[in-house]
Amino acid sequence: MTRFAAGWAAIVGAAAATIALLLLTPGLFGNFWQDDFLLLYHASEARLASEPWLGATLWLPHGEVWRPVAGRLLWRFIEGPLGASPVAAGAIAASLWTGAAALAGLLAARLADGSRSTAAGAAALFAAHPCGLLPLAWPSATQESLALAAAFGATLLALAGSEAEGPRRRWLLSLSACVFGAGLLCKESVLFAPILLGACLLATRPRLVRADLAPAALAATLALLHLASRHAITFPRDDAQYAAGGAFALLRNAAAMTGHALGVSPFLWHAGTPPGTRFGSVALSLGLVLLAGWTLRAHADDPEKRRRAMVLAAGAAVLWMPYVLLRKPPSSYYPLMGLALLFPLLAPVRQGFACATAVCVVLSMLSARAPLPAPLARAAWAAEKRPLLDAAPKDAARLWVLVASERDLATLGWQRGVAWIASRRYGSITPVLGREIRPEDLPPGGVVVDLRE
Q1: Which residues are bridge partners to 433 per DSSP?
Q2: Using N-to-C axis directions, what is the helix angle for 193-204 and 142-163, rounded to 10°?
Q3: For a tag on the chain, would you pick the N or C end, based on fewer CB atoms within 10 A?
Q4: From CA 184, how far away is CA 224, in angstroms rounded?
Q5: Nearest-5° angle of CA 357, CA 358, CA 359?
Q6: What is the separation, in whole angstroms, between the first and last Cα of the chain?
Q7: Angle at CA 166, nearest 5°, toward 164 and 171?
């Protein structure tokens, strides 16, 4: 009954924080941009080709990232039965994010004291954290929500299975493996879930026995099997963004991951953001640092609490390490799985969850309202330009699309996204980048759509 009550408390906490963000930040969902258009294009092509929902979806040609559940099946559903409605896609994104946050809260309660207040507080904090702004506001980032939900769900099942005996133990561990496998079909970030499970096992048990290693070993085996197929189906063979970086990338990524974890959004530091907003976000983030110090002090007097805090903090650091080593800068949602290990530490601190959640709600609002190239600004720009592309004549052999920069073209989903918006063939779209080119300079025989103003 206690775990059942904690589960409901986590759902309520996550839903309350998500709804608060949606109400306080108008336009947080309801628009497509960037990868959304690209995924809609692929879903439309699959529908027009009468491809089966499972056959061609589960096995993609070589050269594409393999995310068949979140990247293909979900978008076949959005493009088909839901009529490519951005509002419906936003509602799905918000629901999936709420579910992932609720499971994070339930895991925090499992690692801490098992109370309803911890479950609700951790779920609300996870849902409100600025790292979750993209999975909440961007339908394409539902891949991250599904992957996190699978990682947390598989970990909870494995922890329960490690304590059970007989058929119940085998059933729970098998179900955990199935959930973990489904997460691997959503996004490859679930490869790191065995680290999450290992940290949770070490934190909940002073001494591990051989039977405790079975859940982590099973998850690690599935992760290695998936990773072994990297060059065939998981990553593009020549994609350098997953390569390791040098010393500069290491320092830059470590600073970026720290900033993301503290809620300092990179979108707040572009031109056009008022200085007061920037420094206000830093001041709020310093409040999270003080809260972290308060939390560490609360664990200092109890050896068992101190050991658990060190294990969970080390687990979070190990989860973040692969992203720090990459050549490319880390995205804002990369620290989320590691943050789920740190939230249980707030349980002994009175009002800790409430204070941190309030700070994170304000930080998320500031990040969402930042000017270009923040997510909401990009989504609003795409929504403004869509009617111009949709109104272009369909009978012309060529559609010239004038955009100011590569970033603007990416916001529309590149050429394939533009083809879906304009309801045209991919080969008939020609993007033209730069502000100095005039429409009359282009070859005759095509239609020009100028999106540079």
Answers
A1: 403
A2: 40
A3: N
A4: 11
A5: 90
A6: 59
A7: 75
DSSP H/E element including 400: strand 399-403
State the residue for tokens 């249980």: 344
For residue range 309-343, list pLDDT tens digits in order.
889 999 999 999 988 888 888 888 999 999 999 99
Report whether 34 contacts 410 (CB < 8 A): yes
| 120-163 confidence digits (pLDDT tens) | 999 999 999 999 988 988 899 999 999 999 999 999 998 888 88
CA distances (Å), origin 322, targets 245, 328, 334? 11, 11, 10
pLDDT over 50 at 1, yes or no: no
Q: How far apart are CA 387 and CA 389, in angstroms?
A: 5
Cα 423–chain centre separation: 29
The Cα–Cα gap between 111 and 347 comes to: 10
pTM across the whole model:
0.90
Cis preceding-peptide flag for 373 (omega within 30 of 0) = yes
The rounded mean pLDDT for the chain is 84
Phi, psi of 429 (to 5 degrees): -100, 125
- Can you read off the two tokens belonging to residue 2? 């206690």
Residue 215 has pLDDT above 50, yes or no: yes
The dihedrals phi and psi of 450, each to the nearest 5 degrees, come to: -95, 115
Please give the Cα distance from 265 to 258 (Å, whole number): 11
CA nearest 254: which of 321, 195, 324? 324
Q: Are 115 and 109 in contact (CB under 8 A)?
A: yes
Q: What is the dihedral of CA 180, 62, 51, 390, to 10 degrees?
A: 100
pLDDT above 60 (res 429): yes
> Rounded to whole angstroms, how far apart are CA atoms 214 and 160?
12
Residue closest to 200 by CA, chosen among 309, 111, 316, 314: 111
pLDDT at position 290, please? 85
Are the beta carbons of 419 and 38 closer than 8 angstroms?
no
For residue 273, what are the contacts with CB-CB under 8 A and spacing of at least 6?
267, 370, 371
Between the CA of residue 450 and those of 34, 160, 201, 432, 442, what are the distances in Å? 18, 58, 57, 9, 12
Calpha distance 40→181 (Å, rounded): 25
420: left (phi > 0), else alpha (psi -120 to 50), else beta? alpha
Least confident of 62-71, 194-203, 213-222: 62-71
Q: What sections of 234-302 are H helices per DSSP? A: 247-261, 275-298
What burial class does residue 194 get, using C-beta atoms within 10 Å of its C-beta: 0-12 exposed, 13-18 middle, 19+ buried? buried
Please, are residues 172 and 158 in contact by the beta-carbon 8 Å criterion? Answer: yes
pLDDT of residue 210: 65
Give the pLDDT of residue 63: 46
